[in-house]
Amino acid sequence: MTEIQTYLQELRRHLSVDATTEEEILKEVRSHLEESAVALQAEGLCVQESQRLAIERFGNAREVAGLMRRVHSSSVNEAILASCLPVALTLSFKWVALPLLASIGHWQGNPTPIIFGALAMLALLVPGLTMHRWRYGYAAWAFFSVIAIAEIGT
Amino acid sequence: MSPARDMRKGSTTVLILSLVAERPMYGYQIAQELGRRSDGYFDFKEGTLYPALHRMEKEGLLRGEWQIVAEGPSRKYYHITEKGKRALVDVAAEWTTFSRKILAILENVQGARSGTM
């Protein structure tokens, strides 16, 4: 394994961003380090030395990953916020909208779980369709979905 | 952090915008240009450039575009956006005012120092 590959592995370990962003960052850093190493080889350095110096000039992998994480963390936060949407919609529908409708229309009947289920599924689609890039968002989305579905059953 | 390093850090946005305003550039090229034009004064750790580029891309100041290179790895070229151009005008004006004011104060300090000699 080359020095650059080892560096990229370390960078990947500390990144903690979604898969697409991670891939793009690694591709960009690899491109930078390879070009830097080639330029240093043209100055007379051997392959290993050129890669080592290119990495040294680039900076500590953990620090770079930390700065990158800070820039891209907003995507994860957005994903987590979006993942709350289904449960918020379902609960507000169950506890606010329906009782309001019932009081206005003097309607006392219980809506069927099928209606709740259909509305919850529609609500789940919103973040589900927009969050395909966010693995953390998906995990949170799945968690809140389970809560939402469990709440429908009660 | 030293005052010089602090100042350099604060100037990253204006430096990147002014370089990319000339022509689309990729990360390595930006790092090289900054080092060359400042005689090594802006010779920072190159890896710190990318978080700044990504932040500016997220803010809509830059637009990144991958280009396949015949020999070697693909490069992500950064283009300045209309929003970036407007931001450059504002930030450049701010830096000009800032540096003028600092120089005016420093001239007084130097004047006072030479008066005591």
Count of folded domains of chain B: 1
Structural class category of chain B: mainly alpha
Radius of gyration of chain B (CA) equals 17 Å
Number of domain modules of chain A: 2
Shape by Cα distribution of chain B? elongated
Strand order of the biggest β-sheet of chain B: 1-3-2
- Main sheet makeup of chain A: none
Please provide the ordered H/E string of secondary-structure elements of chain A. Answer: HHHHHHH
The oligomeric status of these chains comes to heterodimer
Radius of gyration of chain A: 25 Å
What kind of sheet is the major sheet of chain B?
Answer: 3 strands, antiparallel
In DSSP terms, counting alpha (H) and pi (I) runs of 4 or more, how many helices of chain B? 5
The span between the termini of chain A is 56 Å
> How many DSSP-defined strands of chain A?
0
**Number of separate helices of chain A:** 7
Can you identify the CATH superfamily of chain B? Winged helix-like DNA-binding domain superfamily/Winged helix DNA-binding domain
Q: Which CATH class of chain B applies here?
A: Mainly Alpha
Structural class of chain A, please?
A: mainly alpha
